[in-house]
C-alpha cells in the first residue's frame, strides 16, 4: 500500500470561541504552526492578552512523517486539559496545529469529568471555527546541469508537477525544487537517467 503524501492542517488562526460551564469561561483558539518557536510566541501573546485568566492549557502536533506533540495541563489536575485538547487534534486528523484553551475560573469546581468535557469541547469548537485544508508532503531536490539541458529539465518538472523554489540560470544552472512525495521517486529517476545532469535530495 502506498503511504499517503498529504496531511490536514488549518489555513489560519481561528477566531476565539467561548464555552461556559458553571461560571467558568473556556476560550478556545487554534493556530497553524510549523515550529516550537512560533508556538512559544503564540502562548506568550495569549498570556498577555488574557492576563487575568487562571489557566492556559494547550496541545500541539508538529510534523508529517516524524510526529512531535506535547500536551500541557498548566496547573489543572493531570490529564484533564492537555490530553482532551490533543484528542481533538487527533480526531480531526490534523498536524502542524496548536490549540490553546484559556480558562477563567468562575468560583465553582467542575470536577475531573467536567474539566475534561470543557477542555475537549472548547478545543472542538476552535477547530470547527477554522478552515481545514489538505497539503502535500513534499520532497526537495537540487538539480545542477548545463544550460543546454534546461528545457529538458523543465519538461520533466512540469510533467511531475514540481515547484521551482529558486533558480540560478547561467552556463551552469542550479534549480532547487520541491515535488509531492508520491511523484518524487519517479522524478528523481527520470532526471538521474541523464548522465550530465546531477540531482540530489536536500
TrEMBL record:
InterPro entries the record matches: Impact, Impact_N, Impact_N_sf, Ribosomal_Su5_D2-typ_SF
Protein name according to UniProt: Putative YigZ family protein
Domain of life, per lineage: Bacteria
GO cellular component terms given for this protein: cytoplasm
Organism listed in the record: Winogradskyella wandonensis
GO biological process, one term: regulation of translational initiation
Residue ranges of every copy of the Impact N-terminal domain listed in the record: 22-127
Family the entry assigns: Belongs to the IMPACT family.
Amino acid at each position: 500500500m502506498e503511504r499517503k503524501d498529504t496531511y490536514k492542517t488549518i489555513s489560519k488562526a481561528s477566531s476565539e470561541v467561548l464555552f461556559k460551564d458553571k461560571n467558568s469561561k473556556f476560550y478556545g483558539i487554534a493556530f497553524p504552526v510549523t515550529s516550537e518557536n512560533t508556538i512559544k510566541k503564540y502562548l506568550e501573546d495569549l498570556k498577555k492578552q488574557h492576563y487575568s485568566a487562571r489557566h492556559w492549557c494547550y496541545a500541539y502536533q508538529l510534523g508529517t512523517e516524524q510526529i512531535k506533540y506535547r500536551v500541557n495541563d498548566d496547573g489543572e489536575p493531570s490529564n484533564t486539559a492537555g490530553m482532551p485538547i490533543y484528542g481533538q487534534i487527533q480526531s480531526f486528523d490534523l498536524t502542524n496545529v496548536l490549540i490553546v484553551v484559556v480558562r477563567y475560573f468562575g468560583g465553582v469546581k467542575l470536577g475531573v469529568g467536567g474539566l475534561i468535557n470543557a477542555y475537549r469541547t472548547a478545543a472542538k469548537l476552535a477547530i470547527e471555527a477554522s478552515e481545514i485544508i489538505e497539503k502535500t508532503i513534499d520532497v526537495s531536490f537540487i538539480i545542477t546541469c548545463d544550460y543546454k539541458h534546461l528545457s529538458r529539465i523543465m519538461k520533466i518538472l512540469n510533467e511531475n508537477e514540481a515547484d521551482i523554489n529558486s533558480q540560478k540560470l547561467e552556463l551552469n544552472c542550479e534549480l532547487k525544487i520541491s515535488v509531492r512525495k508520491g511523484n518524487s521517486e519517479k522524478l528523481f529517476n527520470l532526471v538521474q537517467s541523464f548522465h550530465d545532469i546531477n540531482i540530489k535530495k536536500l
